[in-house]
């Protein structure tokens, strides 16, 4: 697929030049911020701007204000996953996702469901299911109906199947779901059950490292083809886009363009750019932040290059650095568009510049 020349040409170099100018007078150890205030991200984007949240985050007034000001859509970071919802006795709890949904309603924000079926999570209640009382397939359907149905009419979409492709690109991941319902069939069933539960929600296949591992990306694309051929009601594809500053230039753009080939909705679903994971041989903090900003710019420009009808949303995996999941690996990492105090960073300026062109 041919990519727009601007992704590798003048516009990218032009931004990089301004980025270096902005960073030149900054101390290397400090996080950079743009010289001028930026407009709210959602105010310039002709598509929903999302962010991941936990229910506890909403108790922080400063963060709550930042979310309302900058974002137009919320994704529960983990509290709509099975590990939260399904108790050991098989009953369900919804307190935290309900709180996020209520916040979204109160502030007129979209709600995106994440995630229904994930190889990495298996509730003990499913592992010890008594099939003399209910079949595994029926329990699977009941779970999807209970979760999707609860937010029917509010959730704009769902990550129905998450991270299905093996990391080496050799087929699909093994899981309890694949073992009991079939390696491919469990995915088709998940999409069909989700469609039954909410006919109006947009349904996504979501995965990560598609930018980093070309073989995995090819396998992901072939899986999409097979799901479509099987009649699975898949509406969109999600690329998490958790990348690091050593990500090869152009691969984010190439990934987004290749995902668009099916005419489906495209969701940049969990965007962040780790500095710590890609630090390598680049010790200078200012250089690392300029590389980070360049990747923010590339992702924004690639998303804007999509046909407007395919731009589902661009979701950051958090807004402030202080809430990033990557802090658990390295407390010094700063992967998100805003500082811990809510100030926009060079990365936010880069993203905004490309979206507003």
Which terms summarize this structure?
15% strand, eight-stranded parallel β-barrel, alpha/beta, single chain, 357 residues, 38% helix
Structural class: alpha/beta
Oligomer: single chain
Order of helices and strands: HHEHEHHEHHEHHEHEEHEHEH
* Large-scale geometry: globular
| Percent in strands | 15-25%
The N- and C-terminal alpha carbons lie at a distance of: 23 Å
Mean pLDDT: 91
Low-confidence segments: 1-30
How many individual β-strands?
Answer: 9
Our Rg estimate from Cα atoms comes to: 20 Å
How would you characterize the largest beta sheet? 8 strands, parallel, barrel
Number of helices: 13
Strand order within the widest beta sheet: 1-2-3-4-5-6-8-9
Helix fraction by DSSP (H/I, runs of at least 4): 25-40%
Write the layout of secondary structure elements.
Layout: H1 10-23, H2 41-44, E1 49-53, H3 61-70, E2 73-76, H4 82-85, H5 95-106, E3 110-118, H6 124-127, H7 136-150, E4 155-162, H8 176-181, H9 185-197, E5 202-207, H10 214-229, E6 236-239, E7 242-244, H11 251-259, E8 265-274, H12 285-304, E9 311-316, H13 346-355
Helix pairs in contact: 1-12, 7-9, 11-12, 12-13
């Amino acid at each position: 697929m041919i990519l727009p020349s601007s992704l590798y040409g003048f516009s990218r170099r032009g931004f990089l030049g301004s980025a270096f100018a902005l960073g030149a007078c900054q101390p290397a150890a400090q996080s950079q911020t743009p010289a001028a205030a930026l407009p709210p991200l959602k105010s310039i984007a002709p598509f929903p701007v999302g962010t991941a949240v936990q229910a506890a985050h909403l108790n922080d007034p400063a963060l709550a204000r930042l979310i309302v000001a900058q974002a137009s859509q919320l994704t529960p970071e983990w509290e709509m996953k099975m590990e939260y919802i399904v108790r050991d006795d098989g009953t369900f709890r919804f307190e935290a996702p309900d709180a996020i949904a209520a916040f979204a309603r109160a502030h007129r924000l979209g709600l995106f469901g994440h995630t229904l079926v994930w190889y990495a999570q298996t509730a003990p209640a499913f592992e010890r299911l008594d099939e003399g009382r209910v079949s595994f397939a029926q329990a699977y359907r009941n779970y999807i109906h209970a979760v999707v149905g609860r937010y029917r009419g509010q959730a704009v979409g769902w990550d129905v199947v998450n991270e299905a492709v093996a990391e080496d690109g050799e087929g699909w991941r093994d899981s309890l779901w694949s073992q009991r319902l079939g390696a491919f069939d469990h995915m088709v069933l998940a999409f069909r059950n989700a469609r039954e539960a909410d006919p109006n929600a947009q349904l996504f296949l979501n995965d990560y490292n598609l930018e980093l591992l070309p073989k995995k990306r090819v396998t992901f694309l072939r899986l999409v083809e097979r799901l479509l051929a099987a009649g699975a009601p898949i509406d969109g594809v999600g690329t998490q886009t958790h990348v690091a500053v050593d990500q090869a230039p152009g691969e984010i753009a190439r990934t987004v363009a290749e995902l668009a080939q099916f005419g489906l909705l495209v969701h940049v679903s969990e965007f962040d750019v780790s500095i710590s994971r890609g630090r390598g041989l680049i010790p200078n903090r200012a250089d690392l932040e300029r590389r980070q900003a360049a990747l923010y710019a590339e992702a924004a420009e690639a998303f804007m290059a999509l046909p407007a009808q395919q731009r589902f949303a661009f979701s950051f995996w958090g807004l402030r650095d202080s809430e990033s999941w990557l802090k658990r690996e390295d407390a010094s990492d700063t992967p998100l568009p805003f500082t811990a105090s809510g100030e926009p960073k060079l990365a936010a300026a880069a993203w905004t510049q490309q979206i507003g062109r």
